[in-house]
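Supplementary Data S3. Sequence and structure tokens for construct A.
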Amino acid sequence: MFSYKAIYVIIVREFKRFFRQRGRLLVTISRPLLWLFIVGAGFTSMVNIPADLSAVPTGQAGISYKQFILPGIIGLTILFSSIFSTISVVWDREFDFLREMLVAPISRTTIVMGKILSGTALSIFQGVILLFVSPFLSLSISFHQFAAMVLLIALVSLAITAMGLVIASYLTSLEGFNVIMNFIVLPMFFLSGALYPVNTLPPVLQYLTFVNPLSYGIDAFKHVLLGSALPPLGPEFPIILDIGAVIIFSIVMIILASLSFERKG
């Protein structure tokens, strides 16, 4: 039986767990800021911004490297938050709480949607916080841009959380989860265009970015936050392609997550 009340209970439980883990909360806030202001500052001194960015046409603007990586850091936050929110599935399995959920009079689709929506909500919360950093980077965001970013963050969070849930449904220990997550999460981030333009990568690595759903999510963020920026630091794909790719990936991952829960339990 599909139950909206059960989904609500799962979401509330995950939020309570998140806010009770003060170390996780501290890492969530400090990690993106470290990347933005320390790693970003270091990379700024190493990256040569093309000279033609200083002579931009009317209506377009050059951007700094810190402004360029803000969409990528938001993507990084969503990636880590969404993936690691699904670790609760492995945790619940180890402590037999998942078995109690599975024997409850609710459908497994309800459990899957509860886990996906709770992870998505946590990622939205953490991603939106970073938008308030933009004034410190001399990057103004209008209300319409803010609203568009919230919708895009929700969409990307949904896709990544569903992917993490598919993987978590096949794991039985926290140790295995950490190994696989690090094997997947870091390559996804470094091959997403978050730290450097995709067009500057070697052809082989470019092909890998094309199959990475996070690349399209971060590029969509660039459209909203850096829309007037010129290539190579501006958006590199059409916005329609970005949104379409993330939506298709989300649907596929949600279906796979539902099927894997039905099969594995």
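Construct B, processed identically:
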Amino acid sequence: MELVCPAGSLPALKAAVDEGADAVYIGFKDDTNARHFAGLNLAGPKLKQAVDYVKKHDRRIFVAINTYASEGRLDHWKSAVDKAADLGVDALILADVATLEYAAKKHPNLSRHLSVQGSATNKEALNLYHQHFGIKRAILPRVLSIAQVKHLCQASPVELEVFGFGSLCIMAEGRCHLSSYMTGESPNCNGCCSPASHVRWQETEQGLECRLNDVLIDRYKDGENAGYPTLCKGRFEVDGNIFHALEEPTSLNTMDLLPELRDAGVCAIKLEGRQRSPAYAKQVTGVWRHALDRLGNHSTLQIEPQWTEVLDKVSEGSQTTIGPYHRSWQ
């Protein structure tokens, strides 16, 4: 299976390549990118440096143009597609059908991967994207059980990639209606959930408080880890109790499932985290490279304790889950 790693900056890209990523995925420094955080992503000469570094090491580079084009601004997304093609990248990661159609017609020889933002969860949807837009690969949403992933692998007309590690989203893969409601900025159009311009941190006598558009979403005691402030993982008072009412802050970790995912026919494991540091890219890539190399053609995978220790340290709330993969009710 191919190891696809995140790169939100040139140092992160180099770290991922050096640690053994088979492919890295990046985004431009604009709102065509669903991880459009301030201070991150690539533009100008750094884009060519990134492509050159990846090619020099005989790896692959994908560009995520995975937000949805707003009315009257499709040319902006078309320009992003053209720019990626001119750079000589190996694939585009797309979600919007208008952008997909443009890429398919203008650059038919450039591989197109359906973004997780496209939320294709059944063979009919995959067939449609394959027939109309010639996608070569689809990244499955993090809402499917392992049984559903196996079933889709048997029926899919295209390669399937799944998330192996990183943050979980309780919404329809990035379409965070909670964040949209609270800030008035849709992640699918403006490029990120909980935009930094709406986040406010404040030390108080009760602890470190975090507010999103002035609404208190969490309060941390001294020494308590404070994660990225998303509404879905905030703590709220319900019936007199304060707890994570919607979702616990935890990260996805499917390393235990690697033999099953490989046997099912999954072609690539994706690590989440383009908003994270170069140190994160180095650590998670190194651990997953070791795991995939050890797995090889073996029927089981012996997971080293130090791998788990590294992943736990960079996980939300220092805890991990296999999330929807284990939900038998699905």
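The two ends are 26 Å apart (CA to CA). Residues 235 and 243 are 5 Å apart (CA to CA).
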